[in-house]
Amino acid sequence: MAFRAPVDLDALNALSAGNLVGHLGIVITEAGEDWLRGTMPVEPRTHQPFGLLHGGASVVLAESLGSLAGGLSVIDPERFGVVGLEINANHIRGERTGMVTGTARAVHIGRTTQVWDIRIENARGKPVCVSRLTLAVVPKPAD
Length: 143
Description:
Blueprint: H1 9-14, H2 20-23, E1 27-31, E2 35-42, H3 55-73, E3 80-91, E4 98-109, E5 113-121, E6 127-139
Antiparallel strand pairs: 1-2, 2-4, 3-6, 4-5, 5-6
């Protein structure tokens, strides 16, 4: 599986302005033929009350990466987009500072559904969270 068109990182990051993704400081940093990578700072805006990276913030990073990658993988992107159906996350390691990096890779790209694995690591390459995202491929609304 490869993305349907070249990945424009600037355009993907522009989609994040003024919404939760941008508020959390998530930046899409790299793309391969079939994977998408992004970072998120571990700081007060992504902490839970005890000073650790909030699990919900990790899930936002995972769903953002998987959904963006899913949109890049839709067979007919003029007519179809993706929406999340289900996401799960296993939180493996706590982080207090630094940057985490997530990488989304396709497990299944179908006509009506997609499944993505997202692995989030700390700066030392140790796993922080592993997530699986299921997307529905749906018609885009008519203008």
